[in-house]
Structure formats: C-alpha cells, structure tokens
C-alpha cells in the first residue's frame, strides 16, 4: 500500500511499483486515515509519506499499525530528515526511512529489505542519526534564555531598544517614562548582563539569541528637537 497526503505522488509511486511487478493493494490520500486503511487491508508493506518527520505525533499512525498489525512493515517516505526525525520513525515501529528523492530502484530495495525483516535506511542517514543522538549539539540559545530570565520585562524592553540604537531620550519617550528612569534601567541591564557599555550589551544579546526570544517592541519617531544624546 502507498499512502501520502499528495494523491498524485501516491498514485505515481503505486504505478511505478506495479510496472516492476509488485501488487499494490491501494494508493490513498490523505495520510491521516492511513492507520485504519492499513489495518483493514493488511498489506505486507506500507509506504507512508510525510512532509514533516520531526513534527510531534506525526508517526502515531505507525504506532497504531504496529499495535494492530505487527506483521505489516511500514516504510516512511519523507524529505531529507533531521536525525531525530529518523529516530522518531524507528521508535514508532517503522521498518525503514526512504527519502522522497530516492530513485524507484532504491524504493524497491527498501521494500525488499522491509519484507525480509531488515532495517531499510541509507547508511549515511542512520550514521547521522546516531551521531546527533549520541553527541547532541549544544543549543545556541541556552545562554540567551538564562540571561532573559535575569531581566524584568521592562528591562528586556530597554535592552531591545538599546540594541536598536535608541538613546536615553528615545527609550524614555517610547516607554513613557522619565529620562532619568530610563537611564537607571539601562544601568541595571548593564549590571545584570555583566557588561560595561550599551554596545557590549547589544552584542551579547544578539550573540546569545536573547533578542529573538524577546521579540520586537514599538518605537516612537524622534521629534525635531536637539541632537540625540550620545
């Protein structure tokens, strides 16, 4: 059986497999009803297409199929996945993972492996999955999250405005506070971040991803008064 949210893809793959001598019980869409269809028809192999292998719960149909029809081998068809996407597919009970851009010969080899009880996945994909799971990359925004938790919401807004190049007068106008209060907030932000200047604070916030987490703030247009304070 071939199941994919894109009916055209499912039917095209089914036709190609038929031409190579395989008996295809059904080519169906969408993938949301895959589990019930597979459980009813009980094919030897199910080719299950997905566009988002890393999305939580995307392999729930695989879990259900393997629970109700453990003899059915499920091959996931998807894009170039993240290693965790491959791991999630196998954790759900899939027999293999085949990239959408694989040639029909590669799909056929994967089917044959799955029917014989072997894991059907390209060695480089499997190697990448094990490598990332055993040596997870450090999350670049961990420090940013830690710094963000040190600041009050008002101080976060001040930092974002500093990073946008606003001086004390503009910060005060944009937040509706006195310049002296804005200056105090800036000093507190510098102290909490452990930096000595506004430029250093802006650079640290950008490097750690703090600005992305904080989000944008509204800005006030400068008036036609005296030049900006340095």
From TrEMBL:
Keywords attached to this entry: DNA-binding, Transcription, Transcription regulation
Transmembrane segments: none
Coiled-coil parts of chain: none
Residue ranges of every copy of the HTH luxR-type domain listed in the record: 144-209
Domain Response regulatory stretches: 1-115
PROSITE patterns: HTH_LUXR_2 (PS50043), RESPONSE_REGULATORY (PS50110)
Protein name: LuxR C-terminal-related transcriptional regulator
InterPro entries named in the record: CheY-like_superfamily, Sig_transdc_resp-reg_C-effctor, Sig_transdc_resp-reg_receiver, Tscrpt_reg_LuxR_C
Gene3D superfamilies: 3.40.50.2300
A Pfam family per the record: Response_reg
Organism of origin: Streptomyces shaanxiensis
């Amino acid at each position: 059986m071939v199941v994919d949210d894109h009916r055209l893809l499912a039917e095209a793959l089914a036709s190609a497999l038929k031409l190579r001598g395989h008996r295809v019980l059904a080519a169906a869409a969408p993938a949301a009803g895959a589990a019930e269809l597979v459980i009813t028809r009980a094919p030897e192999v199910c080719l299950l297409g997905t566009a988002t292998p890393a999305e939580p719960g995307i392999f729930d149909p695989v879990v259900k199929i393997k629970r109700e029809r453990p003899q059915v081998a499920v091959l996931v068809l998807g894009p170039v996945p993240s290693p965790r996407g491959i791991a999630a597919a196998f954790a759900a009970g899939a027999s293999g993972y085949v990239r959408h851009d694989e040639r029909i010969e590669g799909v056929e080899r994967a089917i044959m492996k799955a029917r014989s009880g072997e894991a059907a996945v390209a060695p480089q994909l499997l190697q990448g999955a094990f490598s990332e799971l055993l040596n997870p990359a450090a999350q670049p925004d961990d420090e940013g999250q830690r710094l963000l938790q040190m600041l009050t919401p008002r101080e976060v807004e001040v930092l974002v405005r500093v990073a946008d190049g606003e001086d004390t007068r503009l910060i005060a106008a944009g937040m509706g506070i006195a310049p002296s209060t804005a200056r105090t907030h800036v000093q507190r932000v510098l102290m909490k971040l452990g930096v000595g200047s506004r430029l250093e604070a802006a650079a640290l916030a950008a490097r750690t991803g703090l600005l992305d987490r904080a989000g944008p703030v509204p800005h006030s247009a400068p008036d036609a008064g005296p030049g900006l304070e340095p």
